[in-house]
Amino acid sequence: MAHFAKLDENNVVLEVNVVNNADIGDLPFPESESVGIAFLNNWAGQVFNWKQTSYNASFRGRYAGIGDIYDAERDEFISPIVNEAQTL
């Protein structure tokens, strides 16, 4: 199974959806990401900002949870508490 975080306009995680490996062509990350995004946008009926996340935290720092923030510079999901501490 592949996991995808739906992000708002501020890169805050709104939800995490699971996509069957067959729906992403059994591709590994990062090749699976664009296929999964296309699948989810088609399923949702509109375009959203999605980022693939790893349940085992093997990429993007950690498994994305609701309220986490996607840091594009680091290409990682971070806790809002960590992000807040870094800006102090």
Characterization of the model:
- 25% of the residues lie in helices and 27% in strands.
- It has one domain (2-87).
- It has helices spanning 31-44, 80-87, and strands at 2-7, 13-19, 49-53, 69-71, 76-78.
- The chain is α+β, with helices and mostly antiparallel strands and 88 residues long.
- The termini are far apart.
- The strands form 2 sheets. It has a 3-stranded antiparallel β-sheet, with helices on one face.
- 23% of the residues are buried.
Q: Largest beta sheet: what is the strand line-up?
A: 2-1-3
- SS summary, helix count: 2
Uncertain segments are none
N- and C-termini, Cα separation: 38 Å
Mean pLDDT: 93
Let me know the number of strands.
Answer: 5
Summarize the SSE layout with pairings.
Layout: E1 2-7, E2 13-19, H1 31-44, E3 49-53, E4 69-71, E5 76-78, H2 80-87
Antiparallel strand pairs: 1-2, 1-3, 4-5
Q: In brief, what are we looking at here?
A:
With 88 residues, this protein is an alpha+beta fold.
Any descriptors?
alpha+beta; three-stranded antiparallel sheet; two-stranded antiparallel ribbon
